[in-house]
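Why this split exists: single-chain examples teach little about how molecules sit against one another. For that reason, every record in the complexes split bundles all components of an assembly together and asks for one structure covering all of them. Below is a record exactly as it appears in the raw files.
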Amino acid sequence: MKILVVHGPNLQLLGKREVSVYGAVTLNEINESIRALAKELKVQIEIAQSNHEGEIVDMIGNSRATFRGILINPAAYTHTSVAIRDAIAACGIPAVEVHLSHIYKREDFRQHSMTAPACVAQVTGFGKDSYLLGLRGLVSYCSHQCETPKAKSARKKK
Ligand code: DQA
C-alpha cells in the first residue's frame, strides 16, 4: 500500500514560522516521523510540499494510479480552495485532512474547512501528532476498504 502525503503552502517554513502557534518542529522532523511510522505500519509513502494550488490539484488528480490514500495538510487552502476540495472528491481514493493547530479555536476565517467534507476524516490540534494519528487512521481505513477490481488492476498495470 502506498500513501501520498501532501503539505500545503508555507509549511516549508515550520520551525521559523509563528512558533507560538505551530511550535518549533520543522517540516523535515515531521517527515522523518511520518517515514518512521510508515515503516512500522509497513506502508510506502511519497511526501510532497507545494505552495501552488494548481500543483496540489494535479498531484491529487494523478494520485489514483499509484496511491491508495492521501494524507493532506492543505494549510491556508483549507479555508478557500474549491479546486482542492473538488480534486479530493474526484480522485477516487480516501483522503484524511490534518492540521497542526486546532483550527476551530482560532480566527473565524480558519474555523471553516472547505476541504474537510471531501475527506473521510480530519485530525486537528495535535501538532506533529496530527499527521501520525491521521496516517494511522488512513492506513486502517484503506486496509478495511474494498478496492474495486478496476482500481486494483489500474494500479497493478503501473
Ligand atoms: C494549518 C492551519 C491553517 O489555518 C494555516 O493556514 C496553516 C497551517 C495547520 O496545520 O494548523 O498554514 O493548516
